[in-house]
Every structure is written in C-alpha cells, then in structure tokens.
Write a structure and sequence with these properties.
This protein is α/β, with parallel strands linked by helices. It has helices at residues 31-40, 53-56, 58-66, 86-101, 123-128, 166-173, 181-193, 210-213, 215-226, 235-244, 246-249, and strands spanning 11-17, 46-49, 70-73, 109-110, 132-133, 137-138, 141-143, 146-148, 200-206, 231-232, 254-255. Helix content is 37%, strand content 15%.
Length: 262
C-alpha cells in the first residue's frame, strides 16, 4: 500500500491548467476569485502555467505562489510536448526555468500539453533539475529519479468537449457524446469518493473553462475535495513523498498513449 501520510486513504492533487499564452486567451482575471475560494476550503493546488506568462503576466504567477500554491510548467506556449524533439524539449524547458526563476519561482515539475512525454522522456526533465512529471496515465510511480504523477483523461474537464476523446467519454458514461458540466462534476465526485486505498488521483480543471464549469460546480468540487479521506496536496509535495519512498513506487505508474490531438 502506498506510503501516504498518516491514515490517508489515498493521495489527490487538484490542478489548474492554462493561464493562457496571450492577452486574448488570458485567464488571469479569474485568479483572485479562484484563489479566494481555495482559501475558503483550505485547499492547496498546482497551477500548470505556460512559460510565456513569466513575461506577459508575472503578477498572476506571483499571486499564485504568494497564496501558497505551486506554479509548475506547461511548456512555453502550450506546445504539444510529445511532438517536440528531445533537443526542442530541453530548449523549451530551459527557457521556462530561466523565466520563472527570474520571478523567484523555482519549478519542480512539468505537465506536458497533450499528455505525452515524447522523445525526451524523463531524461530531459532530470537533466533540467525537475523532480516530477504529470503525463497522461494512472497511478503514482518513479522512473530514473523522476516522480510520475499521471492524470487520467476521465478526470479532466476538457475531456467533456474535445472531439479526440470520444472513446474516453464512452468509457465514462457509455456514450461518446460531449458531456455537460453537471454530468462531469457528478462523475468526478464519484471518482474522488471511490479512490482506491493507497491510490493516486489528479483532478484537472482548465482555467479557461471555469465559466463552462460554473461557480456552483466549482464549489461542489472544492467541497468534495475538502472532505475526502485522501491526502490533498500540491504535486511537488506528492512527488517528494514518492521520491522518498522510491522502492515502493518503482514501476507503479502506467502511461496512457491517448492524446487530445488524436
């Protein structure tokens, strides 16, 4: 059984993706309200942000970190990570690390847009000094010193809408048609409530989809997470736990080749 703290049933990470890559796509206006709601529920989260925001919207990144949440990397401009060569990944990552470091933010992990680690695998991340990756998959594990904290597509809000993920929706509901926000939140609540003992689950909400999700549904998710028997922590905290129990977590994660570009 996974070595989660205390008597926690499992481990769970709440994460928010996509701060945006330009003014037109910026979701930073939603941050103050979201950070306030997280505080009300005494929850911590990981925000996977594009590197360009270190130049375009540094105050948004600083506000996330100042509120006690983790800022992690989501490529420079949301490039499909699995489509990049290993050299391109290394260059992209180095640019992001430097930019965030200039704000006093040290990055611990990457969520690859599209869900795939691609040619660089974990080697690029290890050489850059990162501690974890959050690709598509299941479980929590470790590979060559890098903690793997996968997300499952069925726990991602965008899965409800993206055409390439019809098979995942059919797995969730028996129907490949798009889901509405209420149905997704009900499904997610069941998944959180049924987390396996010793298991790991990552909830993924996209900042640009907060309006689609709606305030009531967001409140439902936060309330469910605040009352779960699982350990709800930042991704870097879970990664450090995995790395400190490397023998137990070796080979415990499986990666999923499904991508939203399929």
């Amino acid at each position: 059984m996974a070595a989660w703290p205390g008597s926690a049933r499992g481990a769970l990470c709440l994460s928010f993706d996509n701060l945006g890559v330009d003014a037109a796509s910026s979701a930073s206006a939603a941050l103050p309200g979201l950070l306030g709601k997280l505080s009300e529920h005494d929850l911590v989260a990981t925000f996977f942000c594009e590197g360009v925001n270190a130049e375009r919207d540094p105050d948004a990144l600083r506000s996330i970190a100042a509120a006690g949440h983790e800022v992690a990397y989501h490529a420079w401009r949301h490039e499909q990570w699995g489509d990049l060569t290993a050299a391109e990944q290394a260059e992209n990552l180095a640019r992001g690390l430097d930019a965030f470091r200039g704000l006093g933010i040290e990055l611990a992990g990457l969520r690859p847009p599209g869900g795939q680690l691609g040619d660089g695998g974990v080697e690029v991340l290890r050489e850059a000094g990162l501690r974890y990756a959050s690709p598509a998959g299941a479980g929590a594990g470790i590979e060559d010193g890098i903690a793997l904290l996968p997300f499952q597509w069925r726990h991602v809000d965008a899965t409800c809408l993206l055409p390439g993920l019809d098979p995942v929706r059919e797995q969730m509901t028996g129907n490949p048609e798009p889901l509405d926000a209420d149905a997704f939140v009900a499904y997610l609540a069941r998944e959180v409530g049924g987390i396996e003992r010793g298991g790991f689950l990552s909830v993924v909400v996209h900042l640009p989809l907060l309006d689609w999700l709606g305030e009531n549904n967001l409140a439902t998710i936060l309330q469910k997470l605040s009352s779960t028997e699982a350990w709800v922590a930042r991704c870097d905290e879970v990664a450090d736990r995995v790395r400190s129990n490397a023998d137990e977590f070796a080979g415990a994660a499986t990666l999923d080749p499904t991508t939203w570009t399929a």
